[in-house]
Amino acid sequence: MSANIGVVVFPGTNCEQDVARAVALVGGTAEMVWHTETDLDRFDGVVLPGGFAHGDYLRTGALAGHSPVMSAVKKFAQSGGPVVGICNGFQVLCEAGLLDGALQKNAGLSFVCQPVELQVAAVDTPLTLRFDVGDVVNVPINHFEGNFVCDEQTLQMLEDQHRVVVRYKDNPNGSVGDIAGICNEGRNVVGLMPHPERAMEAILGSDDGREMFRSILDFASSERSGA
Fold it and tell me: Which backbone phi and psi does 140 adopt, to 5 degrees?
């Protein structure tokens, strides 16, 4: 069963075509969704891709978090639909209140662009349905403000509720708890800093992103069928 994925585009987004291609490579269909749209009912899943939404003015993702489309994203998420935010998309989800914590400048104030190893910590999310806990995947990162931060109470809650989805094996940015991605309490909204859409072909270094995108389609199809 194929799934139709909406790819949200803000002014400054630059990874939307990569995400659309990744969706197509694993058998899904993708449609660009401009940030002024307010109806996502036609989609089975939604991805917020990376980039520099609204030029990252104020804070990364701050303006995008209040775009008209985010009201529709919230409604979609509340109905159980899968939502995945990648890099800048993760920042937007945090700014919109769909995920806990925030993303700050990397430790050492350095831009990082490199492959990283991620360890899967939760498997009942749109990103990780096809994995086992402890699996290691190789996915690139490309960010300056990817340092995940939260207070101790929030970190304990994320740990207790098993809402850390993937962790860095070798922390590149100072993120608390080595956190590379988390999910919401309903486990249908996921944000991560690494770029699985850039790990779709082994000849380019890794195709581990394929199983992540297949997981998104599986989750979307199961929600649509009521499984």
Answer: -75, 155
CATH-assigned architecture of domain 4-225: 3-Layer(aba) Sandwich (3.40)
Phi-psi region of 103 (alpha: psi -120 to 50; beta: other; left: phi over 0): beta
Catalytic hit among 54, 145, 195, 211:
195
189 φ, ψ to 5°?
A: -115, 125
Active site residue 35: no
159, amino acid identity: E
Residue 195 annotated as catalytic:
yes
To the query of whether residue 183 is one of the catalytic residues in this protein, the response is: no
Which residue among 16, 197, 211, 223 is the active-site one? 197
Beta strands in the chain (DSSP E): 4-9, 29-34, 45-48, 83-86, 102-104, 112-120, 136-143, 147-149, 164-168, 179-183, 189-192
pTM of the entire structure? Answer: 0.95
* Residue 106 C-alpha from the chain's centroid: 18
* Catalytic residue from among 15, 54, 87, 183: 87
Question: What whole-number distance in Å separates Cα of residue 227 and Cα of residue 221?
Answer: 8
- Kindly state the helix (H) or strand (E) to which residue 219 belongs, with its residue range: helix 209-225
In 3D space, the residue among 102, 79, 82 whose CA is nearest the CA of residue 90 turns out to be 102
The two beta strands, 147-149 and 189-192, are unpaired
Q: How far is CA 191 from CA 88, 146, 183, 195, in A?
A: 9, 11, 6, 11
Per-residue pLDDT tens digits for 8-58: 999 999 999 999 999 999 999 999 999 999 999 999 999 999 998 887 766
